[in-house]
Fold:
Amino acid sequence: MLTTLSIPSPSQGVWYLGPVPVRGYALCIILGIVVAIWIGERRWIARGGRSGEVSDLAIWAVPFGLVGGRLYHVMTDHDLYFGAGKHPIEALYVWRGGLGVWGAIALGALGVYIGARRKGIRFLPVLDALAPGVLVAQAIGRWGNWFNQELFGKPTDLPWGLHIDPQNRPFGYYQYSTFQPTFLYEFLWNLGAFAFVIWADRKFRLGHGRVMALYVMAYTAGRVWIEMLRIDNVELKDVFGVRFNVWTSIVLFVAAAAYFVISSRRHPGREEDVYLPGRGPQDEESPSGDRPAGGVSDPVE
Structure:
């Protein structure tokens, strides 16, 4: 039964403009992408890049990221789409939810790499510019889980428990009505991680991919404890009694931490030039012919 202190779930996650469905999940993903591009653009200009280049890179990164996120989800939850009584075509229904963050990050980064090489941009500086905005995008995207009433945690009677409609409760939990709002925990964690990464980048002038490494460490540190609260079924659920996504987060945290330490020793400081040799803003001058100055002060640097 819904208590007055619980968090309500939306009564619906889809609205129709005539025959066109408008899905809350899709709106959250789109808004997150837009905000990430805006933050990344400001940080890139502050690093010495040209205005508009992050939007150009997004043309590569966004579709690659969507494909990667969906592939990761389908591979780790393939029984949802393949087997007796299943409909494989539904593996393509991205708008219904189901994007694996690490698949999205991996292929999204590949898209950035391809776009950066084509424009003569150094890969690591642009990753460092983009990484904090991705945390905000992930925070916003988690509200899509709220609209879909999915990926919530264990039953709870806490005042901020999330009410889940009976048809959306997993097998074995029908008698419970409120659950841990893991979407909200990750939303708040990611915003806090964003603030921490921005602070660290400003204070220590991180470069050579260390902002990206710090992003991975900050995100996975939260993902470990949040993932352990969740009760949704996943194909690779238990490895030595621990969810597969928890192990993934642990391995990535260790790898990112090792990279951060090694990079700090080998390449202290921050790159002075964000473009590859032979390519710079002077090669694609603005009407005034001015080259953006590296290290410009910026509120979100």
